């Protein structure tokens, strides 16, 4: 082998034979070993439970550096986007790889307005869920069913992807608000095109015939920020679910529905709800931090600190930092005093000064403070994960689109290391013990 090949290939020695595997370099210096021919050449697969070390695609949507705490959508720093953009601008950016100019943004807004209504037949679905049904279950069912009412247009699902994407982004907001109204037993409030994307959602959630809702710009701004911060996060579990299901060639709605189901898990999107439950438990226990810190350190105790640590970040989650800063301002403007904010701050201080947690890189993540803002703007705890889904939707769609446009895409079909019985002789039923 020449030196040139050694610079571009990794060497792997198996059973005395050297194999040369191409090294890939990402746009931000990330490095990967291309093992796509490994099985064919050597008969070996790689074993990587939980895909901790495996890149399953190359993507141009989101860059994150977990050591430095950097997050960028399409090259733009999350700090700038969260501070200066509308959520629908960021959605456009994720879908089109470009920040929209005024005309493009207006065009997108018009599509969102046009698609805000739900087919009236679908509204009857809500009547058949039990009153305490999980809003995530409702969301996933309704999104899957959208396919029956609004099939993708044209022979190629990518042909009219802008329209299908806008339909989803607009209708998921309507579905989310309707599921809340149904859970309250209140009449539905229909979307209004004179309101902004977030204003419209808040109005559908909180307006009632007996108490008209006034959309407050501060509340709109807070929701806008949270949705932007959740809009994409590279190949997380729900995005991987969207790509995995979508790789079988299924329609966009079904793929997004799979993503919603993955997000529902307490280890993923459900974590923001778990944080509030944890803070409430500490409050109910008279702020007995010591007790909860001891429980978190006890390996035999199932209790875990929610909202700390992240698979990828070894430092602060930049989204958590932005939300923490926003918390004070938003609670002050809304004149809300929430004892859980103080508990969260104290707990963070304790954790960040305790060697046990520091050595495990347990920094606050995006879920730690987001629930406090959602509470302040009136979102009930069981809707927190729905809010996450609303924010993540443009990211899921952009990732699905990228996957379908990528000529390298194949149906996802991981391998395994078989750990079962060796071949056994079949025993007829009458002879079995
Ligand atoms: C997310 O935003 O999806 C979560 O932080 C989880 C992840 O990235 O793995």
Describe it.
This protein is mainly alpha-helical and 433 residues long. The protein has 2 domains: 6-55, Rubrerythrin, domain 2 (Single Sheet), CATH 2.20.28; 78-412, Citrate Synthase, domain 1. Helix content is 51%, strand content 6%. It has helices at residues 3-8, 38-42, 78-84, 87-96, 102-114, 120-125, 135-149, 161-184, 197-206, 217-229, 237-246, 252-263, 271-284, 289-297, 318-333, 339-352, 355-358, 366-376, 384-405; strands at 9-14, 17-25, 31-33, 62-65, 70-73, 76-77. The strands form 2 sheets. Strands 1-2-3 form a 3-stranded antiparallel beta sheet. A hairpin with a 5-residue loop joins strand 2 (17-25) and strand 3 (31-33). The termini are far apart. The model has no long low-confidence stretch (mean pLDDT 95). D-malate (MLT) binds next to loops.
SS-based structural class?
A: mainly alpha
- Topology as a string of helices (H) and strands (E): HEEEHEEEHHHHHHHHHHHHHHHHH
- Percent in helix: 40-55%
Q: Trace the largest sheet across and list its strands.
A: 1-2-3
Q: Mind telling me the CATH class of the largest domain?
A: Mainly Alpha
Provide the domain count. Answer: 2
Q: Please, what is the average pLDDT?
A: 95
| Topology-level CATH name of the largest domain | Citrate Synthase, domain 1
CATH architecture of the largest domain: Orthogonal Bundle
Please give the radius of gyration in angstroms. Answer: 24 Å
Q: Please count the beta strands (DSSP E, at least 2 residues each).
A: 6
What characterizes the major β-sheet? Answer: 3 strands, antiparallel
Strand fraction: 5-15%
Low-confidence stretches: none
Total helices: the number is: 19
CATH superfamily descriptor of the largest domain: Citrate Synthase, domain 1
How far from one another are the termini?
60 Å
- Morphology call: globular
List all distinct small molecules, including ions and cofactors, that are bound in this structure.
D-malate
